[in-house]
Amino acid sequence: MLNLFKKLHYGARVLLSKLGGQPETIDVAGKASILLHGGEGEPFVYLHSALGESLMWLPFHQAFAKKFRVYSPIHPGFGRSGGFDLIADIEDMAFHYIDMLDALGLEQVCLGGVSLGGWIAAEIAVRWPERVKRLWIADAPGLWVEGSSLGDLFRVAQNREKLREMLFHDPHSAMASVVIKDNVDESTMLNAYQAMTVLARMVWQRPYDPKLAGRLRRIACPTLLLWGDNDRLVPPAYGEAYHKLIPGSELKLIPNCGHLPMFEKEAEFVEAITKFCGV
Predict the structure, then answer these.
(1) Most exposed: 71, 157, 195, 219, by fewest CB within 10 Å?
(2) Cα–Cα distance between 112 and 134 in angstroms, integer?
(3) Domains along the sequence of the chain with CATH
């Protein structure tokens, strides 16, 4: 009964959040890209994970929009964002987003993302450090960490129970079943297919960027590394590796949290990033 109440409560929050973010199609170097945006204040760019959570404006987006002007673009290959045929690797994703910042007229932003989005944010920050005012990275791959393997997302992608176990600290929670539903409709299946297609292109041959570790010293802004302390997909050892390589960075572990802190520990996630970017 408690889980049902929590599901209904979150569903109501999602409906209310949809009143906030506005979708827009913008031209990014000749590609039609979908962008959700809302709020007022300093520009804040959120790059989504392979889950595709930015396909709609969610409660955590709305929470950030109370303090910032939030830009939440949808990656090429997800939803109706075009240009995936021109994306061959993670570097192409980074160039896509610097083109987007140019198209939006944003000279400097607070930039961050979860998982795949965090990896992309890191790749942007090492190439164009002057464009990033503050950087946050949550539960992101991108590095080779000796002795700590990434979870095999492809192996469990079709098993909803195993997927919840990999992505959530508490796979039996209401939020786990809200995010990873048992009854999969056609839209959800399409989104999952798109996610696996993008991930396969990014990580199938090599799930990291061999040049990134040597480039992280180029990051010139304050950096927050935010990790679920029980992330089974990208373990905290990856956060520790980023911490060692990014000068002056701060590593914060979120207790009792898996790979998706924006869902499992939304309040802590939003508070930590808002405080960091609002300084």
Answers:
(1) 157
(2) 8
(3) 2-277 (3.40.50.1820)
